[in-house]
Amino acid sequence: MKHLFAYLKARLMFKHFFAPRKDTIHSDTEFEKEIRAKIEKIKTETGNLLHSFRITIPDKKDIDAMIQLIDSKFDSLRNLIRIRYQTEFRKAMVNKNVNHQKQLGNQMMTELSDLQKQNKFLTRDINETRLDYNWKLYPIWIGILLLMYVGEVFFNYEALVKVMRDSMVIAFAIALSIALAIGFSNHFLAKKVDFRTHAKKKLFGIALIYFSAFYFLGILRAKSLGVENPYISFEALGFVCISSILAFGAAIVSVLFLPNHNQRVQKQRLDELKTKKQEIDMKIDDINTQLKADPHVQNREMIDQARHIVYERTLLDMVDSECEVLKSELMVNMRIYSNIHNNESNHFLN
Questions:
Q1: What confidence tens digit (pLDDT) does each residue in 18-53 have?
Q2: Distance separating alpha carbons of residues 347 and 350, to the nearest angstrom
């Protein structure tokens, strides 16, 4: 009765392990058929050996020998399965891949934490930065300044071309050179001179310089035109006034309405902070995207290795279950044959 219970238990284990499973993700039908065929062959050979015990009475040594024979044959099947699927190698590959993924994940989390801290500090610095200049008006003042310089070029050209009628190109080149000289001078003054103190005195000095320079040019122009008393002539004074107003107006815009050196440095630093924050934001988005990525897409090789491991374990479970079932059947049949022989002996004695 004990062996019968063992037989039934082995059958139940077989049904538990080899019922259709939803998570079967790898299949090797031909190899599985080969294993099942070998199992059937072992069963047939074992059944043939059992027939000999219908005549002779089986003893413990015979039973142990047959069980060892069954274990030996099923061990050969297990070795065949392990050789085919190279389980230990695949496990090592999976473990290595898992450890690499964990290490990579830890590195990404550490990098993400560092980037978030940097982003926090950058956001604080950007919010605390206060610009002293309204940069929204900057393009407007640049446009006004360009109009003044263009007006300077054309007014000086019109004034010079009356003197240099046969050299219009040279007249335009001189007019352009004067405008460029004024522009560079105003840029230098705005960059190097601090107009936050004594602004009126400094502006008066600039106006005096421009008036003197253009008065000298106006006298030369009036003399070239043959004007009598060129020092106080309308030709000289008109040229001086208009040119000086354009040049001094451009100077006022440059030194009072355009950003000075410190304001430019301040804006440049803020732009660098924003650029750096934008780069960090992009890196954070990339890391978050990688962390949220589907692991089945990232780890196809590891999943494939795991599929083979699971299927090999399935085949080994099948072999183990069949081995236990066959040994249980052997014990049951041996018990039956022994009882038959005992009954025949008792009947003969009676």
A1: 343 444 445 567 888 888 888 888 888 887 777 766
A2: 5
